[in-house]
Known about the structure:
It catalyses: tRNA(Asn) + L-asparagine + ATP = L-asparaginyl-tRNA(Asn) + AMP + diphosphate + H(+). It is a single chain. The protein is α+β, with helices and mostly antiparallel strands. Helices cover 30% and strands 27% of the residues.
Amino acid sequence: MVQTVFIKHLSEHIGETIMIQGWLHTKRSSGKVAFLQLRDGTGFVQGVVTKAEVSEEIFARAIALTQESSLRVTGTVVKDERAPSGVELQIQDVEVVYLTHDYPITPKEHGVDFLLDHRHLWIRGPRQRAILKIRAEIIKAIRSFLDERDFTQVDPPILTPSSCEGTTTLFHTQYFDRDAYLTQSGQLYMEAAAMALGRVYSFGPTFRAEKSKTRRHLIEFWMIEPEMAYTTHEESLVIQEQLVAYIIQHVLTHCAIELKTLGRDLTKLQQVIAPFPRISYDEAITLLQKDGHEIQWGEDFGAPHEAAIVEHFSRPVFIERFPTTIKAFYMKPDPARPEVVLCADLLAPEGYGEIIGGSQRIDDPDLLAARFAEHELPEEAYAWYMDLRKYGSVPHSGFGLGLERTVAWICGLEHVRETIPFPRLLYRLYP
């Protein structure tokens, strides 16, 4: 019996005759040789069929193969330094599993709308596969980092009775005889979990009903939200920068082929070493004003402002202590300066903007009650959240990392729509 091997492991079988089960990505041929670009989900490899070395029937099968036909091929693995994987396959047999006709995505250029309409097929291409593999490794790195540091994963609900941040960007649904919403963050529930388990994190989908079409926005996206009891704002920042540096090193180590496929400039990623630079909101405003931006203290930053700020840094940069009036109700004011809160946004370099937002949370029940009143939040809806302050309140902090924006930055992508298998955009719910 010939052993079936995944393409990613072919370099371990040089000189051996093995079988690959996969699909034909592309093909070129002359009268005497056919070059088959094969894929199996784990990678790509070139298979060579030489007419003089196989039967007429096998060569005819190879010549007749069409793009994305499924097949099994048997051949000998040989070393080839020119190949991305370092090997190629000298094919001895071709078994057609299914012969495809009129595959819609051809090597020619296609428009974005066409490709998104065929996203279920588009993800088969080398570029899209590389992005999704890097996404998977980023997730693996995040889980490893947190699990190794005594965090426990907790899964908050997706259907919630109220908003986390008191905004109007919520997807409403009917929950039997009452109103409910798709979650925009699991943070409040993670605070409850932190009071039970100490260090926790959630990893799951979140939803924002923002009518935005920018290159950084999705309607459905994934968030990693750690929450930590007995943790100050400063301590949280250290964990955040260590996490991001860990992710980068993991991807550089495990995704060399994928990064090469994307043409990513590795020198920019190699500079991402903790600790990261930090500036205050005040300093950021001054910097923007010197650069000619018309922005005043008390205004929030948009994408152009974030892009301008990171031009001054080669690594991710923290912006700390935003005005209380533009941040969420649960953020703890700076005791030395109550008009700002103990929070920070982490901006990725190269214009990718905010990838992490975090803060120390209010732990004083009286102050939290005042915030409910200021933000006109119904106390009955947040009674359980107030209980966390009434029964054993402690200093605690947390943050949320947006997975798709992180993937876009690490991969060097123009738009987040390529960072998730099936993007949900303002005018797109198919496929």
